[in-house]
Specification:
single chain, 421 residues, alpha/beta, Rossmann fold, 2 domains, 5-stranded parallel sheet, 17 helices, 40% helix, 17% strand
Length: 421
């Protein structure tokens, strides 16, 4: 086969070619030979891949199918396959049953066949590479998936905002971001946009010397390297772009003040959780309307109902071609507090809740005071399960379930029974 028939990722390139760095993705490679395993292991140590999380497994496609029966799929799966084309198709059909939306798949084989390449592309495979590969071949192919012409932005921006001050929107955002990073193993950044009073640093028991304010007050200097320096590492898959939480400046911004920051994050991080303060300004409205998904957090009282309806109506009107904004109900079941019934609340705002979180002062208070997440305080907490389900929902990894069928039913039943007595 001549060069112009080769897959683009393996076409010959000049020696001075610049290969773009690999963004913060999770990658799992399933090898059938030690040759590919060695190449990928060497590539993982290259400077261009120092942000990616790479795991190498042996066993090829059968091992991948078995692994993803019970585990979420990463951003990128690389499969080494044998020459049996019928086995390849059946393996891909089996793998497709477990692949999450947004996961890219690259096939590595030994058949130098343009017909096979085109057939795989038609099936939705992202690329087909032919062995033997060297380290730069592999890095170049992965880089092209995320930085080539016409590629979609890597990251999803999910904005959380409270319908009223004090409803716990920040706590929900931080716990959901943490669960996405831990449970789905997706590289996640939490951006705290409450520059004066943000609590992300406290919730994660961190005190980073720099944060998002350093970027927004120096727009001419904002680039990928600067954002990397400002990120504070919380875990293997979670980083924090913290607020300064000081009052030595006035935090008034232009409408587009945060655009450059989010453009950079979209190009390098799969999941960006944005903690938007309860304010209504030109920049906060722009952040909410330009996000890929918006979650409004509310409590079941009249002021929350009014504000949530207003906010949801504005967001639906300004984002007609996007997913409708979502609703999370928090602090439900406070003893002796008159509350609006969940069914009446959701009917009034014309949106079902993707999560209902019961009031639990001890659990949330302990987590806040210790700088921990809910699941770290109580690993068996049903609230932790609901927060994880919210994370899976906003990342497209689960269908939102009707609240009457959630795991919270026993808790809510006990709360209502206690209130009635």
């Amino acid at each position: 086969m001549i060069d112009d028939e080769l897959p683009p990722s393996q076409a010959r390139t000049p020696e001075h070619e610049q290969i773009a760095a690999i963004p913060r993705i999770s990658m799992q490679v399933f090898c059938e030979t030690s040759d590919l395993a060695a190449v990928v292991s060497d590539a993982a140590g290259d400077r261009r891949m120092d942000k990616a999380h790479v795991k190498v497994h042996m066993g090829g496609a059968p091992a991948a199918i078995e692994a993803y029966r019970t585990a979420p799929t990463p951003n990128l799966i690389v499969l080494e396959v044998g020459p049996d084309r019928s086995k390849l198709h059946s393996d891909l059909d089996d793998l497709a049953q477990f692949c999450d939306a947004g996961t890219k798949v690259v096939i590595v084989g030994r058949t130098n066949d343009i017909a096979l390449y085109r057939e795989l592309m038609a099936r939705g495979i992202s690329d087909y590479l032919v062995m033997p590969l060297d380290v730069l071949d592999f890095i170049r192919a992965v880089s092209a998936l995320y930085s080539g012409d016409g590629t979609e932005p890597l990251g999803r921006v999910i904005a959380f905002v409270g319908a009223k001050g004090g409803v716990g929107s920040s706590t929900i955002a931080h716990n959901v971001g943490w669960s996405i990073a831990r449970d789905l193993e997706i590289e996640t950044v939490i951006a705290d946009m409450d520059l004066a009073y943000g609590t992300a640093g406290l919730d994660f028991n961190q005190d980073p010397p720099q944060g998002i304010a350093d970027a927004v007050f120096a727009p001419d200097r904002v680039d990928a390297n600067m954002i990397d320096r400002l990120l504070s590492k919380c875990s293997d898959h979670l980083s924090l772009l913290a607020a300064s939480a000081t009052l030595d400046r006035i935090y008034d911004f232009d409408e587009t003040a945060f655009d450059a920051i989010f453009d950079i994050l979209r190009s390098s991080v799969p999941c960006i959780i944005v903690d938007v303060p309860h304010v209504w300004t030109s920049w906060s409205k722009r952040v909410l309307t330009s996000a890929d998904d918006v979650v409004v957090v509310a409590s079941p009282d009249l002021a929350n109902l009014r504000n949530a309806k207003s906010l949801l109506d504005v967001l639906r009107a300004s984002r007609p071609n996007d997913h409708k904004p979502r609703l999370v109900m928090n602090n439900v079941g406070v003893l002796k507090r008159p509350e609006i019934e969940l069914k009446d609340f959701t009917k009034a705002v014309e949106t079902d809740a993707i999560g209902v979180i019961p009031f639990d002062a001890k659990l949330f208070g302990t987590a806040t005071n210790n700088g921990q997440m809910i699941v770290e305080v109580d690993s068996a907490s049903k609230t932790g399960e609901v927060l994880s389900e919210i994370g899976r929902t906003v990342m497209g990894r689960a269908e939102a379930k009707k609240q009457k069928k959630t795991l919270l039913d026993p808790i809510m039943a006990r709360i209502l029974k206690r209130k009635a007595s």
